[in-house]
Amino acid sequence: MIYNFNSGPTMLSPEVLQEASEAVLHYKANQSILEISHRSHLFEEILDEAKLLLKELCQLNDDFEILYLNGGASNLFAMIPMNFLVKDKSAAFVNTGYWSEKAIAATLNFGEVKIVASSENKHYSYIPSIVAKNLESEYLHITTNNTIEGTQWKNFEAVDIPVFADMSSDMLSRKINYNQFDFIYASAHKNLGTAGCTIVLIKKNLLEKINENVPAIFNFKNHVDAQSIYSTPSVYAVYVSLLMLRWIKKQTLKNIFSNNELKAKILYEAIDGNNNFISEVEKEFRSEMNVVFKAREKSVEQKFIHLTSTNQIINISGHRTAGGFRAAIYNAMPMEGVEKLAALIRDFK
Ligand code: PMP
Questions:
Q1: In the predicted structure, residue 133 carries a pLDDT above the cut 80
Q2: Cα-to-centroid distance, 87 and ligand 1 (Å)
Q3: Residue 270 exposed, middle or buried by CB count within 10 Å (0-12, 13-18, 19+)
């Protein structure tokens, strides 16, 4: 087996791949999954079950609507302010790195941005606290796991405005009370499926606050009213996401969460135990999803990458803006893959 540590799209479980590939040739009613109509009862069943599973696994209360939207989380960076911001109003942001900055940049096209906390001063190596108590913005936006920098929010402070969370790289990977947020979104292609769709959990009361004149295709209410079939959805990506959700349920959340914790612990211990490597993330904010580290001597990085590639391990190079290494250990990364990488880190001289 090849262990793919890419930050996404990345490994899916063998069972999911098997079922997804069988569905291409023969799904139901002698049709390929690639050929079924998005308006057929076959797709309706897929969407309904996926939404039901999301509700169950996230233990969501009835205040939420669940959507599958086309595209990735980047689309949401623009759609959110388009729906909820106007020129003279502001959105509050906690800036924790590359993806927060992308969301901030998209927001500036529609209104003002107030940075209420930032870890930019220390190269985004920690999660900053929000000091102000009255935020006086339309909403607060946070990135719960910073895929490139390798930091992760551990506690969520209560604030007095709606909280919007980009959970692209840690949704359903650890215990979180989803009901404390007002809007959650995640590209499917890390923990929850493959590229092509984004999961959105939106509190119903937000639908009343949507701006007029939002182009129809970008208006969240239209997607809610059309039950995620406002335009042709990415049928196959939604199906793969359903398979992943079924797989997560079968593993049980308890096992998924404890495995993820253990996988991260094994890797960080290996890194901390070999002086050739260093993790620059403050320990209490280390991500359980993206283990970011470096070689103390840059010149040996290629040697280590070569070593991993001859040991069934691929894609551990850091993001092109960050360099170093990054091991993404999402839900479907097996323990054996992590143990294999940890052994190489431990023994590297
Ligand atoms: N937010 C986070 C935290 C990410 O890791 C990514 C990268 N997949 C994005 C947003 C952007 O997602 P996409 O490329 O699917 O638009």
A1: no
A2: 26
A3: buried
